[in-house]
Amino acid sequence: MPGKQQKALALQLFFIALGPVLCWIIKDLPPLEGMNPDGMRCLAGGVWLLVWWISEILPMPLTSLMSIPIFAILGVLPAVKTFQAFSAPSCMMVFGATIIIGLLKESNFIMRYAYWCLNLPFIKGSAIRFLLVFTMSAGLLSAIAPNIPLAILFVSIAVSIGRSCHLPPSNGMMRSLAVLSAVAPSVGGAGTPLGGAVNMVVIGLIATVLAHETSFWEWTALGMPLTVVTLLAMFGLCLLVFPLRGAASRLPMSDDFLRDSLKNLGPVTRYEHIAMGVMAVALLLWCAGPQLAALAGWKAGVKLLNAPFVAVLMGLATFLIPLRRDPESGKLIFSMDLDQAVRNISWNILLIMVGTITFGNVLLQGGVDKWVAGLIQSALGNISGAWVWLIMVVLTGLASQIVSNLALAALVLPITASLASLYGFHPLAACLSVGFACNVAIMFPFSSLTGAAAMMGGGEYVNPRDFIWYGLCVTLTVSLITFLFCWLFGAAILGSSWA
Hints:
This protein is mainly α and about 500 residues long. It has helices spanning about 5-25, 40-55, 60-65, 65-75, 80-85, 90-105, 110-120, 125-140, 145-165, 170-190, 195-210, 215-240, 255-265, 270-295, 300-305, 305-315, 340-345, 345-365, 370-380, 385-400, 405-425, 425-435, 450-455, 465-495, and strands at about 320-325, 330-335. It contains 24 helices and two strands. A hairpin with a 6-residue loop joins strand 1 and strand 2. The model has no long low-confidence stretch (mean pLDDT about 80).
């Protein structure tokens, strides 16, 4: 066996053994301050999973699924409880949303939309202007619609462009599109409370720790301007990390090719109209479902029409929308069949979600959050309140790369509120700022479901190193912009006497 192969095998075996060995050592240590008696076993299982996640010795979905036996064997989470993660609202969201997006793929709408974008007069063959349109479209749309389906949709558009034009994985525009498919919906999701599940968790936590019900307009007045600024910053970072100079600044296909490709698709088909209609209804219900139910006097619908239910409802509706009649049997052929649905449902993402949900639940159950809180508070000491606020935002952004953002929000919001009281900075603006920072995770597949969706759907155009280095730049940049914006304008927008 060649030396390089021996080294790779040795490294693989090392990480396979490292996870359980560290787990075995940590689990029997005395509980750290702030942890309950199960805390060290929770921490031990988390370390095992982190080692295997980061080293990628197994495919990411399989490592995530390993959370079920690992935490069950450690005795901190019964296997039955971990299986419940499969029915979590976020899993149901992905299940339904990927059927809807599968309809967009099967109808060829995604290909048409991709070529339509490339033919826009504003773009005129410029790869840089196309990246700007792609960034702002994905980011601003995610402010009013769930970001996981959007990440899946936009990475599908990116891959369709790359493969139809035979672009290599090393192409700078395709490398940018791959990472932007994750970061634009993630960052844009902070624009309104509708942009992601973590936003609703943050609002609930603020109600608990500050006794203040954050309104839609309070969040949006701060979140939307911040989102526009950060999306422009992400676009600029892409140009720095994946420079497009000279010939690379032009789209790697001629104007004639783009026009002919769009023309060859022919007129918009009935199938595409159905796909667009389903997506439009889903977006409407995602944005205003409860409000429409209230206007109609449907009390049950106010609670029923949440994002996961709408995703499943509209996904299953595709099986009942007639497309055409079979000329031989005379029976109706519907817009989606079982084989198409199975082919398009993102099973990899669902398995990753089970692992991340379980991982976050165990961290909180074991009191790992309280231990981390104690470390942060003891490390900060007597420094300026502004520096404390900045540190919390940056730490939140960095921590979001390795901790589920839902679990992270539950960890940092109470800490931030108590620090605001202690150091005298605006508590609501500070809590919202760390809530925004929970949305920036894209460095690793386990960082966020949005990032995982983009990585799993990006095929040959996904380079893990691109996500790591660009994600680190994004994290630090967004954290700094978020702090400065909330520090400078938080009191003016939210009011100094908000409570």
